[in-house]
Amino acid sequence: MHTLLQTAKELDPTRLASAALEVSYKAEGKNINLIDDPLGQYVDMVSFNEYLGWYVGTPDSCKTANWATIYNKPLFVSETGAEAKGGFISSTKAMWSEDYQAWYYKEQIAMLKRMPANFSGISPWILADFRSPRRNNPTYQQGWNTKGLIDRNGKKKKAFFLLKEYYSEMEKMYP
C-alpha cells in the first residue's frame, strides 16, 4: 500500500491520498479506539471505517466510544451506516427499519460531536440504495444494499434528514 501511495503521489502530487486504516479498539485496555495503522504515516488524511451499532453492538454503544490517532493529520470517518428497508417504519430497536437507521445516525452524530479537534468529517455509506447480488436477506434486502439514505424508489429515508441537519450545522460552524 505504501508503494501504491508513493506511485499515486508521483502521478499527481496535488491529489490527497487516504485509505481505510486499521483501528486498535480499546487500545491498551483504555476506552479509546486508536487509529495507529502504520500506513497512516504515508496518507494525507487519517480515515477509518466505523459501524458501531450495525455490525457490532447497538447504536447506543457510540455513547461510550472515544477516538484518537497517533498522527497529526485530519481525521475522517470514511464509511459508516446501517441498513434500512425504505418504508419499513417500526421501533428504534427493530433492525432494518428506517427508525433503527435514524437511531444509528442520531448516536453517530452525538459521537462525532465529541471527536478530537483534528476531526474533519464523515462519509455515510451510502447516499442511495443500490443493487448488490451479495445482499440476500429475503425480507429486507432482496439483492439490494439498503444502507442508503435514499431508498431504491428515490424516497429519502428518515436518516437523510438527520444528516442534512448535521451537515447544515457544520456549514454554519465552518463557513
Automatic annotation (TrEMBL):
Residues 2-171 form the Glycoside hydrolase family 2 catalytic domain. SUPFAM superfamilies: (Trans)glycosidases (SSF51445). InterPro entries: GH, Glyco_hydro_2_cat. The keyword Hydrolase applies. It holds the Pfam family Glyco_hydro_2_C. It comes from the Bacteria. Keywords: Hydrolase. This is Glycoside hydrolase family 2 TIM barrel-domain containing protein. It comes from Pinibacter soli.
